[in-house]
Amino acid sequence: MDANAPADHAPRYPGSGRLAGRTAFVSGGSSGIGRAVAELFAREGARLAIPWHSDESEAREVAALARAEGAEVLVLPLDAADRASCFAAIAATVQRFGSLDVLVCNASIQTFQPDVTRIDEAGVEQLFRTNVFGYLWLVQAALPHMARGGSIVCTTSVNAYRGHKDLIDYSASKGAELGLLRSLAANLAPRGIRVNGVAPGPIWTPLIPETMAPGDLPDFGTDTPLGRPGQPNEVAPAFLFLACEDASYITGQVIHPNGGTPVNG
């Protein structure tokens, strides 16, 4: 891929009201896969909370697109690694909209490091606090406000299943997320709250050119059976399916938009 090639976030088909009247919180919703999910949820009628961490202008841009779809939108700050920030963001969402029906745990970070001996303590702690602790804190904050029929969707990764030689700590965190969502699904089933996951393969998001070595970018995603990376708007429909009533009999499962890579488990 060309490092300057834009990611495609825009929904690819007309909405059908599958999230009408429902409130959704999409962590990491200002960029990449989260942005595509937010835009699609807006088209499908959801009220949206779009958190931002490092760039408020990105969240404002997504919010403008969501409002153009007719959605009510709340833009607010979130540090997923900080428990108090997670609770404050969920509380602000419920105060604004009066309910919370869909929680998308998506905010994550990654760092390419092929030498496992150079993974430092501060970096791996920050990664797990964001990628794993952040999912748990958001779930803890959201559950008191979620009723029967609610849905939690967690972004994990193909690397949770097969690992990645240059993303060792990231892959470990995604494996932890997988264990978390499966355990939550069993725990929350009696309450009628479904918990599922989406495990993307190589997806062309802004995170890729920001974190990969420039020399590796042309080959990104070419090792998949489809021979290319996916776009964020090719992943977002998996989140919509799991969030809405189309998936009312599905919990503890993971969808794999990964270009055809077989996975086990």
Global morphology: globular
CATH class: Alpha Beta
The overall pLDDT average reads: 95
Q: Indicate the CATH topology.
A: Rossmann fold
Structural class: alpha/beta
Strands, total number = 7
Q: CATH superfamily membership, which one?
A: NAD(P)-binding Rossmann-like Domain
The first-to-last residue Cα distance is 30 Å
Strand line-up of the largest beta sheet: 3-2-1-4-5-6-7
- Overall CATH architecture: 3-Layer(aba) Sandwich
Please explain how this structure is put together.
The protein has helices at 32-43, 56-68, 83-97, 121-142, 159-162, 168-188, 207-211, 232-243; strands at residues 23-26, 47-52, 73-77, 102-105, 151-155, 194-198, 254-255. It has a single domain, classed as NAD(P)-binding Rossmann-like Domain (Rossmann fold, 3-Layer(aba) Sandwich), CATH 3.40.50.720. With 265 residues, it is an alpha/beta fold. The protein is built from eight helices and seven strands; from the N terminus they run βαβαβαβαβααβααβ. α1 crosses α8 and α3 runs parallel beside α4. It is globular. The chain is 39% helix and 12% strand. A seven-stranded parallel beta sheet has the order 3-2-1-4-5-6-7, with helices on both faces.
